[in-house]
Amino acid sequence: MNTSKNIKDKLNIFDNYVSNSPRIIDFLLKFKKFNSNPLVDIHIENKKYIVKIANTSDEIFQIFRLRSKSFKKGFIKNVKDFNLENDIFDEFSDYLIVKDKDENKVIGTYRLISSVKTNNFYSESEFNLNKIKNLDGLKIELGRACTDKNSTSPIVFALLWKGLLEYSKRLNAKYLFGCSSIFCKSEYSGIVFDYLLENDWVHNKIISMPKNKYMPKIKEINRSINISDIKIPTLIKSYLKAGAKICSFPAYDNDFKCIDLLTLFNLQDIELKYEKKFSQ
Questions:
Q1: Going residue by residue through the chain (280 aa), what tens digit of pLDDT does each one get?
Q2: Cβ atoms within 10 A of the Cβ of 108, count?
Q3: Using the 8-state DSSP alphabet, how is residue 248 labeled?
């Protein structure tokens, strides 16, 4: 008997039951802190998808469930693994989502924290953000980016970016920033940073240091590793291609086993072709 499969099946049944009960959803969300009053409302729609800022209990619930499945390690080990991924920063956040219209299902999301609401950001747990905070203009931190593994496609990412640009314009934001993650060993930190320098993807004026807890151990850095051995996520490649800059030395998150890089967008520097592509 496959115990793991049985637990997974039971949890999926329970998940579906909860997801279809508005009363249970409202009850579970009472134990979570989140913002239910978005700064702005956007709504972009085509035949299959809707891009919007989440504003209903069902949408918030689906976001937290999607994040749990994406970020919680060891998902489906026991029934206790049913959870809603949530932290203290959700209290100041808006949530950009892509929904599948036929299934009424959230299949992609970004958490957006604006400097209009707070001067405390998730990235600050890993990096010194003083130089970014001191930049003129409104800033938006991007985080908790994830998509449903069964629905991931370039179209979903493109729609998220289209919504992100619209949201930024509505707030007259000047900068986007956040942590970009590469899932690999700590010893790969050196070769990753060399690769970024070689391709002129590191900011020439802003460079932040990781906090002590997140500093890669020097003795683990192995510069003999080839960059081709490391899988650079498509999302990070898209950021860099569109004009983003890395503005930190690598941090290493032992909990998620990944290198984190502080990434900065000056919205005025986004290449015109991307502006046209995502604004159509």
A1: 555 566 666 767 877 788 888 898 888 888 888 887 899 999 999 999 999 999 999 999 999 999 988 876 433 344 345 678 889 999 999 999 999 999 999 999 999 999 999 999 999 999 999 999 999 999 999 999 999 988 878 889 889 999 999 999 999 999 999 999 998 888 888 889 989 999 999 999 999 999 999 998 766 556 667 788 788 888 898 899 889 999 999 999 988 889 999 999 999 877 555 555 555 5
A2: 26
A3: B
Q: Is the pTM of this model over 0.85?
A: yes
User: Would you state the structure tokens that stand for residue 164, as one six-digit string?
Assistant: 């992100």
Which residue matches tokens 């942590």?
179
Alpha-carbon gap, residue 90 to 209, rounded angstroms: 25
Q: How far is CA 201 from the centre of its chain?
A: 20
In terms of Cα–Cα distance, which of 187, 193, 191 is closest to 217? 187
Helical spans, DSSP H, in the chain: 3-19, 22-29, 57-71, 130-133, 154-171, 189-198, 234-241, 272-279
